[in-house]
Amino acid sequence: MENKINSINTIRSRLGFLGLLAVSFANFFIALSYFSSTTVSSGAMFNAGVDVLGAFVCAMLYFGCEGANLDSSDESTKWFRCLILFTSLSFLNNIVLWYLTGNETYGKYCLLLYSITKWFDFSLVLFFYLYVRATLEFKDSVLVRWLNRAISLLLIPMAVLILVNLFVPVCFKVDELGSFTKGSFYWLIDLYLMIVAPLTSFLILHCDVSKRQKAVAFSFIFIPIVHYIATGGVQGYATQYGSVLISLILMYCILFGDRSRKLASTQTELRTATLIQDAMLPNIFPAFPDRPEFDLYASMDTAKEVGGDFYDFFLIDNDHLCMVIADVSGKGVPAALFMMVSKVILQSCAMLGQSSADILNKANEAICSNNETNMFVTVWVGILEISTGTITAANAGHEYPVLMKDGEFKVLKGRHGLVIGAMDGVVYKDYQIKLEPGDKLFLYTDGVPEATNKDLKMFGMDRMLTVLNSNKDASSTVILGKMKEALDEFVSGADRFDDITMMCIGYNGTDHVN
Fold first, then answer.
1. Taking the model in full, what pTM does it have?
2. In degrees, to the nearest 5, what angle opens at C-alpha 122 toward C-alphas 109 and 87?
């Protein structure tokens, strides 16, 4: 939380600095315009000041996307940032045009800059389409897929047209002083805009969103059109991209505001789901303070707000302790829901007093009977007979347990069955583990050996065994704590992609009973 606050404060500082620069530069150029000796340079100064202000406002919006707690990897945010970036570049391109126009030495380069301006216009229209498609969530259909192809492919002839116009100015031309003149085929330059704008408008009309969101999206199309009509289509006019910027500000305030509120609501629901999930797992330790025959501890750290891993332990009767550790396929909310269902089914089957294999057989039958999502879960189930130290276990595609016997932790490979939920009619088999006083059993999900650092290297089984053997004389609580420390040090700030769930039981024997 502290890092998040520091990040937001940094962004606010950037925005304040950019705002100060924008006002300073704009006022500087506008002030110079009043002291300029000629009308042309005076207008250029004023227009440059307006464009500088627009470029800095774009920069503030760009950083503001991060300040609004919007995921930078999100499709909608990505295309909106592209819109802002190209609008800012358009402002900067305009600034250069103001100073080259009327200059006998450099005026000839204005043709290239005007060509770049038109290419920026095409890019803005394309990015706008991609942005509203991601934000308003167009329903996937044959029509939408064909429109996607058409809008992308139309850029190719437009690019060729711009390139040809550099050598054969059929659409527009520029004289030696940089003055812009429309050609007889100038309408071809606007053809892309005239095709894409109506198509995008059609899709916006058929989106299942509020009228306010539709109106804001339409502003990107209609505000520049109204401006174009009002100014008579004057090329290079100072407010040309100002109208685009107004629409971007509206979209930022309205569409991003709605998304932020929706995101906040989702995060609240996820926090509630996290509390419910945590409450379903036994998390009060020591779990059985009146049972000195064994020492048991477990933990789960989720990669997201809610996880798909789970563990469980409970006394079936006074002499039998059932232990479960499992890993559901997938991540997030679907995995968490499947996890809760699986946990309840496994516990219900275990309380019938059956063997570990029978528990998995019944659980698989119940889950396969109504598994439309085709999800599955790996499960290890073990029932410890406390009086003898014998564990009757069954494994449904889960990681092999690690057993400490004779003072050393080693991977214990036993019978391995198919995952739960993959196929109906699977028959699981029991196998036994004999614990002597002082022995320990470590259970885990694949998030432990597969924890990955920034160099994309995995923690691995060897490191896991090294940590276990370095703390073999410690309690179960300490062993899991040391393993967590080793994992955090290895990962060293890299994003975690999988849940990490561990359980450790140390068998003390019946001699500890008073």
1. 0.57
2. 75
